[in-house]
Amino acid sequence: REIAHDDYDLVVDILCKLPFCSPWILPIPCLGIVHHLFGRTAFEQVPFPVAAATYLSEKLIPHAYRDTALITISPSSYDDLVARGLDGSHISIIPNGVDETLYNPGAGAKDERPLIVWLGRVEPYKRADLLIEAMPSVRARVPTARLAVVGDGTARPALEDLVRKRQLTDCVEFTGFVTSEEKVAYLRRAHALVNTSEKEGWGLTVIEGNACGTPTIATNVPGLRDSVRDGETGLLVEYGNIDQLADALVRVLSDEALRMRLSRNALEWSRRFVWDEVASQIEQIAVAVADGACATEVRLIAPVFGGVPNTSRAKAEGVHG
């Protein structure tokens, strides 16, 4: 109703949980942005009726957005969209950025005792339990290691029970909700950031940690295998493999030369994701779509992912090839 009474040039449709199917119902150009598709992981996060609604609603995406220009945030999410039946030539890949004025190494001082940080929404599908299960093995080899679970969510009570059961109350801290500044402080102090999710759209916390000079140990799953460069900015381990996770943590905590190399590379990697550049790429596409360009003309792959130029801009600048 509001769109009918105002002169809008473009609708940006954020596809998350329940797609709005804007191209079916709105008479103006639409740009879709896809951060994360849940698929079957929805059933591990919410009650069955809500999960079923989310799962089934995602089935509409290939139909409702068939001719729509889309932006997604990682090669894994691109592959997911194509596997669901969308035309890859309509999909741009532009990652989320980080605010380097907030996320930076600061003074660069790490805690005296080895600190592991798990950061995010404390929900079942994030699988923080895997890290807690790995801690006894880590502590057996690095006795002073500590873990801070930074964030809050529905899985926290079960995780606190698991910590008590594994007799880890002396070395595991649950922070609950923290401010942005407190989050940055934990990332700066950490020797390693850990992400144990079974699926991510990209893994923004990885890049936030990298920008603070902290490498990430993560599961080798969609999204995280894009944001973590295995052996360069962090280490990837098999999803669900607690022994591999513990071994990777011990390597990073015990080998200072390795940790310093990963940290340097992680910081350099994070500098490719500053918001000014990301925003400029999104703006290019939004302006072109609003001007009536078709989905194939506006496709852009961010340079960090190999780089495919915006076709409309290339034509305007006389670029061919």
Mind explaining what this structure looks like?
- With 321 residues, this protein is of the alpha/beta class.
- The chain folds into 2 domains: 139 residues, Glycogen Phosphorylase B (Rossmann fold), CATH 3.40.50; 158 residues, Glycogen Phosphorylase B (Rossmann fold).
- Helices cover 40% and strands 14% of the residues.
- It has 14 helices and 10 strands.
- It has a 6-stranded parallel beta sheet, with helices on both faces. Strands 1-2-3-4 form a 4-stranded parallel beta sheet.
- Helix 7 links the parallel strand 6 and strand 7.
- The C terminus is likely disordered.
Short description:
The protein has helices spanning 2-5, 22-25, 48-57, 61-64, 75-83, 128-141, 156-165, 180-189, 204-211, 224-227, 242-254, 256-270, 275-290, 311-316, and strands at residues 11-15, 30-34, 69-72, 91-93, 115-119, 146-150, 172-176, 192-195, 216-219, 234-237.
Secondary structure elements and pairings:
Elements lengths: L1 H4 L5 E5 L6 H4 L4 E5 L13 H10 L3 H4 L4 E4 L2 H9 L7 E3 L21 E5 L8 H14 L4 E5 L5 H10 L6 E5 L3 H10 L2 E4 L8 H8 L4 E4 L4 H4 L6 E4 L4 H13 L1 H15 L4 H16 L20 H6 L5
Parallel strand pairs: 1-2, 2-3, 3-4, 5-6, 5-8, 6-7, 8-9, 9-10
